Amino acid sequence: MSVDDFLGEVSIIQECVLSKRSLKEERQKQKKSSNEASDVKLYCKGCVEDNLVCQGSDVYKFKTNHLLVDPEIVNSKLEFREHRDEKKRELGIKKIYCRRCKQDWGNTLPPPKCFPVIKIDSFTVEYGDGTRKHIKKWSKTDFTLQTINKLPKITFN
Strands 59-62, 146-147: parallel, antiparallel or unpaired by DSSP? Predict the structure, then answer.
């Protein structure tokens, strides 16, 4: 096989890989945009009865964190406790739990902005058509969250 033949085959393989990757990315974009965040409801996974925590539109993405920023939801549905991990406790990070069933929902950001950062794994996601799903990672959700670049000035109890 000559050098030119080899380079030709390599370029064909590279073009094939690129087209497959772009198709995969396009499918992921379509999947994410298939549901509106306002149509999505998050229920506590640990509660026996349906405990509606918030709408998908109440959760915002800040950098890599997924935050609840509505003080009414936070003050009525969440319970803050000291973190078990000593290093996180020293940083001022607290654990957040469901006020009803004590299900672990995540952590807070370090002070001074102690916003709740929730784990999607702690919730049952209900879509507008009534179907429900358990999702383990935020990257696997099929709805798009609103991104914020600056944290609002809100204090929580």
Answer: parallel
